[in-house]
Amino acid sequence: DWTSGNVIEEQIAKIREQVGSARVISALSGGVDSAVSTALVHRAIGDQLTAVFVDHGLLRKGEREQVENDYVASTGVRLITVDAEETFLGHLAGVTDPETKRKIIGREFIRAFEKVQRELVDEAKAEGEPIKFLVQGTLYPDVVESGGGSGTANIKSHHNVGGLPDDLDFGLIEPLRTLFKDEVRQIGRELGIPEAIVGRQPFPGPGLGIRIIGEVTKDRLEILREADAIVREELTAAGLDQEIWQCPVVLLADVRSVGVQGDGRTYGHPVVLRPVSSEDAMTADWTRVPYETLAKISNRITNEVAEINRVTLDVTSKPPATIEWE
Ligand code: XMP
What is the pLDDT of residue 9? Predict the structure, then answer.
């Protein structure tokens, strides 16, 4: 019968047998699946595993620290962080088309990862143990979906950062292949991964890059990051984490509107709150967040983030709108 303990024991034995004394690499995205699959492999083979975290500069507030400090402290995983913000923002300069953004972010992610990987491959070779495997956080629904051929139109390319080069000469370790998301969370808890990571709501691979409508710049990211952090804080404080599937905060960076603050006229940007309820992100309804909570969020954002002078609410279901604005 199914217990997270049994699954862990089984997977550990399986991973050890598959890997032997070889080295393994893994890409952490900050999300649940890569966090749990990486921790599981680490539990099996310890420092034969190296995890790589690419900071593309499109992360949410505190996300990098969460991985570098909390995740590492709780799992003991050997981690390399790549500072790639400048590279990513350089390539995103002037780009406003959503799919082009996704393509660039996906491509640069692979490049950044491959660079570290080459270094690790050389290092491992010098030490006499080649890198032979790559960890992937594939879940059961991913397996079904990719084999499905459902014929649905490709609405968004859904670049999953963590989607790795497929021309690699590595074997795959996919310890979550038979599991559903809630089972993965359970295993993560059993492995001691902090709740903030294990219970995290979905967040797109291209990160805040597809929540700035218009060009992605460092300043705009800073503004959005602050607003997003306030929204997450207040929704958590209101106990709405379970009811809400996710709540994108979208910066309409090319729109300005007039406001008044103190004695002064402002000419700032609006943000859109997009709280949605959903089972699987295929369809969604907008969440009826209590007015009190919305009021608090609105007050805090306009008080604490100088460039934002208007907070709006998206009350569209999916379909016809998608969850993300891009
Ligand atoms: P949409 O906007 O298509 O989103 O209704 C459905 C779910 O997918 C997430 N999403 C993405 N996830 N890379 C990802 O890894 C992407 O490019 C991407 N685009 C959307 C979105 O956050 C929602 O959970």
Answer: 97
